[in-house]
Amino acid sequence: MRRPFSLALSLLALGLLTAAPVPAQPAPRAPAAPAETLRDPLFPGLGQAGLDVRHYDLHLTVSEPGTRAVRGVVTLTLASTRPLAQVRLDFLGPGVTAVRWNDRAVPFRVDERAAKLTVTPPAPLRPGTAARLTVEYAGTPGERADPDFPTPLLLGWQAVPAGDGRAGAIFLLSEPNGTHTFLPSNDHPSDKATFITRVTVPRGYVAAASGVEAGRVDAGGTSTFTFSQREPIPTYALGVFVDRFERVDGAAVPVGVGGRAVARRDYFPPGVPGTVREAFGRTDEALRVLAEWFGPYPFAAYGVAVVTPRLPALETATLSTLPLNMSTERVAVHELAHQWFGNAVTPAQWPDVWLSEGLAAYAELLWTEHLGGDGQAYAARWHANLTRAGTRPLAATRTGELFDLTTYQRGALTFHALRAEIGDAAFRDFLRAYVTRFSAGPGTVSTPAFLAFVRERAGAGAEGAVRRWVEERALPPLPVVR
Ligand code: ARG
Ligand code: ZN
After folding, report:
1. What does the pLDDT look like over 247-296, one tens digit per residue?
2. Which of 74, 115, 137, 429 has CA atoms 20 to 30 A from the CA of 283?
3. Model confidence at 16, in pLDDT bands (50, 70, 90)?
4. Ligand 1: which atom is nearest the Cα of residue 334?
5. Measured distance between the N- and C-terminal CA atoms of the chain, rounded to whole angstroms
6. In CATH, what is the architecture of 51-337?
7. CA distances, 303 to each of 215, 227, 239 (Å)
8. How far is the C-alpha of 65 from the C-alpha of 157, rounded, in Å?
9. Atom of ligand 1 nearest to the CA of 342
10. If pLDDT is split at 50, 70 and 90, which confidence band does 370 have?
11. What is the rounded distance in angstroms from the CA atom of residue 395 to the CA atom of residue 125?
12. Residue nearest to ligand 1 atom 5, measured at CA
């Protein structure tokens, strides 16, 4: 905005302000322009443009589950697509005690207001080179309020206090921007990475995390569990859990890429009701059914970890987070579908999240049909809900829209419209091709890229039918799949 004149200018004009004397010392060098963020339309502060975190090697120590205290040591493997004189990570976490660049101590600065940890390497990070950045920290994770949950919810690090004969517990609930409450990270879905997560807990506790368990070491009074997440995932989908869990292993299900076995394990807290276990009793079957529609399951393992606070469920990679109050078969299938849509094919920016939620909701309809139920009636209910509540074009323009009825149910109906247009066989081929295409490379999809892909695979007619659902304000008529 242009101001007609500044205060200083008007004072000058009145002769009340004289020119400042020339300083005796050389003027301090102007601070370097702050590094550009990723300019997400909904979270403009997140991420650093040009930074590519390839891998996080994370060691968390939780000495007293149930309190929020944690110690962390993380080594990030960094690459870049442009020269970076500084690396600026998202971080709202515990106090930083040391920062090393390729094992050498380097200067750093924490800006709590901006939620950034800025590190100055000995020489700029250049495209084609890699570096290892280590951050050590200890204390209390930061507090990041959820953008839209009806009751106040702090995202990221969750501590469940001990009480009523229950031990304390720890888990994460990070979508959309909670991971940097405890992990220095490029905390935007467009920068996916692999993870090794080690968690040290007091003996008697069980830790779990995204990926395949790669060992447990008991030493002194502690146990250290290691997990390897070898396929890249978005930062918000990292799962970490600590409780006195019962781990239930099942036989592997051969629905991975190339028929590879998908390891099966679920984690239940003490005293979990039988009805809750039952909600997850058909996971193997759901893996097979969804793999028929979506193509091979994209990760090496799957299961759920049940947590006790009343919260939304979350598709933490390979190990979905299922609060007791959300532990139903419908939600179980929804979170499983997110492993394809969300974790393997990830929104390029937050307004694209409807592509994840729409397809995860659509999986509920496909599961209903598998059970012999009426999918068209399921779709009609979504349509009636949206007619009643009102709707909007699919790309969210405010954070409060990220997880609303339109994101889920209009998102799902968009895929119902595509299916109505092209038929079941072509719809199945489309979904499989979509996963193959957009899980490759950066592993992200934007709304325009999706529409272009519909046109490429299914033709201009199908694209037109889908585009109405994506872009028009009004609700299009209910599509009919027979
Ligand atoms: N992706 C989650 C799901 O499975 C929803 C997460 C809602 N998150 C939130 N911060 N309100 O539907
Ligand atoms: Zn969802």
Report:
1. 999 999 999 999 999 999 999 999 999 999 999 999 999 999 999 999 99
2. 429
3. very low
4. 4
5. 55
6. Sandwich (2.60)
7. 18, 14, 12
8. 12
9. 1
10. very high
11. 34
12. 314
Q: What are phi and psi of 285, to 5 degrees?
A: -65, -45
184-197 pLDDT, tens per residue? 999 999 999 999 99
Residue 100 DSSP class: E
**Nearest CA to 323 among 374, 256, 276?**
276
* Ligand 2 midpoint to CA 403 (Å): 8
pLDDT score, position 34? 63
- pLDDT above 50 (res 11): no
The strands making up 87-90's β-sheet, listed across from edge to edge, are 87-90, 116-119, 108-111
179 close to 158: Cβ distance less than 8 angstroms: no
The DSSP code sequence of 283-344 is HHHHHHHHHHHH-SBSSSEE-EEEE-SS---B--TTSEEEEGGG-SHHHHHHHHHHHHBTTT
The whole-angstrom separation of Cα 207 and Cα 194 is 19
Residue ranges, CATH 1.10.390.10, the chain: 346-471
Q: Which residues line ligand 1 (CB under 6 A)?
A: 146, 148-149, 175, 312-315, 334-335, 338, 357, 403
Burial of residue 31 (CB within 10 Å: 0-12, 13-18, 19+) is: exposed
Classified as helix, coil or strand, 216 is strand
Counting ligand 1 atoms within 8 A of each CB, the residue from 153, 154, 158, 175 with the most, and so the one to mutate, is 175
C-alpha to C-alpha distance for 152 and 148, rounded to whole angstroms: 9
**152 falls in which pLDDT band (50, 70, 90)?**
confident
The pTM score is 0.93
| C-alpha–C-alpha distance, residues 335 and 339, integer Å | 7
DSSP string, 28-95: PPPPPPPPP----SS-TTSS-TTEEEEEEEEEEE-SSBTBS-EEEEEEEEEEESS-BSSEEEE---SE
Is 346-471 a CATH 1.10.390.10 domain?
Answer: yes
Please say whether the dihedral angle defined by the alpha carbons of residues 281, 285, 288 and 292, taken in this order, is positive or negative: negative
Q: Structure tokens of 250?
A: 């099942």
**Short-list 192, 461, 172, 464, CA closest to 342:** 192
CA separation for the pair 451, 454 (Å, rounded): 5
Domain with CATH 2.60.40.1730 in the chain: 51-337
